[in-house]
Specification:
CATH superfamily of the largest domain in chain B: Succinyl-CoA synthetase domains
Distance between the termini of chain A: 22 Å
Largest sheet of chain A: 7 strands, mixed
Strand content of chain A: 15-25%
Structural class of chain A: alpha/beta
Helix content of chain A: 25-40%
Oligomer: heterodimer
Largest interface: A-B, 73 and 67 residues
Number of strands of chain A: 14
Helix content of chain B: 25-40%
CATH architecture of the largest domain in chain B: 3-Layer(aba) Sandwich
Strand order of the largest sheet of chain A: 3-4-2-1-5-6-7
Radius of gyration of chain B: 26 Å
CATH superfamily of the largest domain in chain A: Succinyl-CoA synthetase domains
Number of helices of chain A: 10
CATH class of the largest domain in chain A: Alpha Beta
CATH class of the largest domain in chain B: Alpha Beta
Shape of chain A: globular
Number of domains of chain A: 2
Radius of gyration of chain A: 19 Å
Largest sheet of chain B: 7 strands, antiparallel
Strand content of chain B: 25-35%
CATH architecture of the largest domain in chain A: 3-Layer(aba) Sandwich
Distance between the termini of chain B: 36 Å
């Protein structure tokens, strides 16, 4: 199977009539995702790729019944309003492929999500895909591309880089394997789902035999993976690559997901804490797929 | 994150009713003298630069009277401290210090928290990262509830702050948090928070940075480049920011790494996607090449945005090559990148015969995109090599190709090995 997105997951697209919203809604639906509704205020009654458009989330829920997941294609400054609206209609899982979101808006969303028990993926996540089952967000791109890159198989993939969440599955496919679910956790300074939340889901998923992580410098997320392994919340083979180990002094990533905290954040620290927990850390990204293959066979 | 100078941070704190020393900011020695006259007491003259340890580097000096203040300001203004030129000094009342505390608000992104954390310490005046955790009291703030006066009191009580100081310290912590929230800070610190010998509390120094994505909500701060940086923006940084500022479609990030190229072996670097872009930088470094800039266009930008980014990268005087480091099998249709880059290369390279160009572009619509690159560059006099997804993780190979092309280019022009 897969995590978070299933064949019967009813999905809503907020901002469905926009440039990205309409293109991605059409892709998601074409890929097999059960996209039941879209929302754009003032555009209720229209259709996008055969998907009915409503003015509000509440209107969509009244017409379609409870909705399981929402994908928000709105500009950063408008994200908070969209996400609070979805949470107030009790949508339990929200994918946010949106960057440049004001930080305090993110913090409010996170606090409200904690209260409501909502799972937020992102902001700044390009999405989630379970090959052959469903996709939410940008991940997958177009049906032909999704088919060529994401093939079903036993490897869960978590990436901190949007681009690498397509590249790692491609390398896994080239190695003769496939992926169960692929998630990009997002590029914003604070995100809703990270290694500590996601690894236990892969632990429960019977079809995931191993997990590959494309990590990066900054932030506490690779350390969370190490803790999950140390505390036996994740016991399957785990292979991690941490990008930025050789970055020159003063080098920064282009996105903001890294807040360096006391004693946390450097590649060296991350690699040390992962290795101490018994995680397989690889030195180059092209070693991820072969290492996974070796561990699955063993 | 857009960093504020000390004097800007203090102005915000003052609005939030946190006491700050009396004084003002000066750009000329005469202004410094006037401020010192108004203060009417011995003053501290503090260079306004973005650097830690400026005191030790001579950036903070004292003056007994207005004449001396003018002289000291004259020395500091225009001088270079830690490679930064001093353009402004803060002239303010010299505090008679009894004790130094610390107050800060940071954001903890970890799974358990994902919220602001208010920190208070009785060990102020030093880098908070060097203070043992037993001397720091901290509280995660539920932003839906906010920080309350008694929360701040309790923080100070944890560290056994004397009772008579509690209200003033709690008020300062509350004011700091209000500033953090009101101005959408990524971090906000008062260090030190000073207790003077006559029993008063002052924010003696502060460090604040505004969240890049929130800068648009605060035009009053006059931040012209909302980008994380340790130094003030260069001219190229400003131009690059203009590409991004008004256009929310996709992301364009350019940071100039070498403002003035004086050595050979420097490449204009154009990555795609944060994680993938760094792979190319790592590899170029291993080949002894340096990057003039770190750039990244991703998140499905328009061709126009990619074009403008490539133009900026190619415009850097002294670069010996251009690399498109698309080390990702991208979901976005890559023809937007292909079109943008072809247009920039055609405009910039017609009169640069032999100029080395390595283009790696992989992912959605790759075949069509590579065709656009091939067609668009075939009549260029430059040395152009184009690669697709069979080379996506071949970082060493591509860096070596870049190096080889640069060597040929040098030989052709009779330039000596760098």
């Amino acid at each position: 199977m897969a995590i978070l997105l299933r064949k019967d997951t009813k999905v809503l697209v907020q901002g469905v009539t926009g440039r990205e919203g309409s293109a991605r809604a059409a892709f998601m639906k074409g890929y097999g995702t059960k996209v039941v509704a879209g929302v754009t205020p003032g555009r209720g009654g229209e259709e996008v790729a055969g998907i009915p458009v409503y003015n509000t989330v509440e209107e969509a829920v009244s017409a379609q019944g409870a909705i399981d997941a929402s994908v928000t294609f709105v500009p950063g400054p408008a994200l908070k309003g969209a996400v609070l609206e979805a949470m107030d209609s009790d949508i339990p899982f929200i994918v946010m492929p949106v960057e440049r979101v004001p930080l305090y808006d993110i913090l409010e969303m996170m606090a409200y999500a904690k209260l409501k028990g909502t799972r937020l993926l992102g902001p700044g996540s390009i999405g989630i895909i379970s090959p052959g089952i469903a996709a939410a967000g940008w991940l997958g791109g177009t049906p032909e591309f999704a088919k060529a890159v994401f093939v079903p198989g036993p490897v869960g993939v978590i990436s901190r880089s949007g681009g690498q969440s397509g590249t790692v599955p491609w390398a896994i496919k080239e190695a003769g394997l496939g992926v169960s679910t692929v998630l990009h956790i997002g590029t914003e300074p604070v995100v809703g789902q990270s290694m500590g939340n996601i690894l236990p889901l892969f632990q429960e998923d019977k079809d995931t035999k191993a997990v590959a992580v494309f990590g990066e410098i900054g932030g506490p997320y690779e350390e969370e993976a190490a803790a999950a392994v140390r505390e036996k919340r994740f016991t399957k083979p785990l292979v991690v690559y941490v990008a930025g180990a050789w970055a020159p002094e003063g080098m920064r990533f282009s996105h903001a997901s890294s807040i360096i905290e006391r004693g946390r954040g450097s590649a060296q620290d991350k690699i040390r804490s992962l290795k101490e927990a018994g995680v397989h850390v690889v030195d180059r990204p092209d070693e991820i797929a072969p290492t996974i293959k070796r561990l699955i066979k063993a | 994150m857009a960093r504020l100078f000390e004097y800007q941070g203090k102005e915000l704190l003052k609005k939030a009713k946190v006491p700050i020393p009396e004084g003002g900011v000066a750009t000329t020695p005469q202004e410094a003298r006037k401020i010192a006259e108004k203060v009417g007491k011995p003053v501290a003259i503090k260079s306004q630069i973005w650097a830690g340890g400026r005191g030790k580097a001579g950036g903070i000096q004292f003056a007994q009277n207005p004449e001396e203040a003018e002289k000291v300001a004259g020395k500091l203004l225009g001088s270079e401290i830690k490679t930064l030129t001093v353009e402004r000094v803060l002239v303010e009342e010299k505090l008679d210090i009894d004790r130094e505390f610390y107050a800060g608000v940071i954001i903890d992104a970890s799974k358990e928290v994902r919220a602001p954390v208010v920190m208070f310490s009785t060990e102020g005046g030093v880098d908070i990262e060097e203070v043992p955790s037993g001397k720091i009291a901290q509280m995660n703030v539920d932003v839906l509830r906010g920080l309350r006066f008694y929360d701040a009191l309790n923080l100070a009580i944890t560290l056994k702050v004397p009772t008579q100081l509690l209200p003033a310290i709690a008020q300062a912590i509350l004011g700091l948090y209000a500033t953090f929230k009101g101005y959408n800070c990524r971090t906000a610190e008062i260090n030190p928070l000073v207790l003077t010998k006559d029993g008063k509390i002052f924010a003696a120094d502060c460090r604040m940075s505004i969240d890049d994505s929130s800068v648009f909500r605060h035009p009053e701060l006059g931040i012209d480049v909302a980008r994380e940086s340790s130094t003030p923006p260069t001219e190229l940084d400003r131009i690059a920011w203009q590409i991004e500022e008004g256009d929310l479609r996709g992301t364009c990030y350019i940071a100039q790494m070498i403002p003035e190229i004086k050595e050979p072996g420097v490449v204009g670097y154009h990555g795609i996607g944060g994680g993938g872009a760094i792979l190319g930088v790592d590899a170029l470094n291993r080949q002894g090449l340096k990057i003039a800039d770190y750039a990244d266009t991703s998140g499905n930008p328009t061709a126009a945005k990619v074009y403008r980014a490539a133009k900026v990268i190619l415009s850097q005087a002294g670069i010996e090559g251009y690399m498109l480091g698309g080390f990702i099998v991208a979901n976005q249709e890559q023809w937007h990148h292909a079109h943008g880059i072809v247009k920039a290369l055609r405009e910039e390279l017609m009169d640069k015969p032999g100029f080395p160009v390595v283009l790696l572009l992989c992912g959605n619509k790759e075949k069509e995109s590579l065709e656009i690159l091939r067609e668009g560059t075939k009549d260029l006099p430059a040395r152009v090599e184009i690669y697709g997804s069979d080379k996506v993780y071949e970082t060493e190979f591509l860096a070596k190709r870049m190096k080889a092309l640069i060597e040929e280019y040098r030989k052709e022009r009779g330039v000596k090995e760098g």
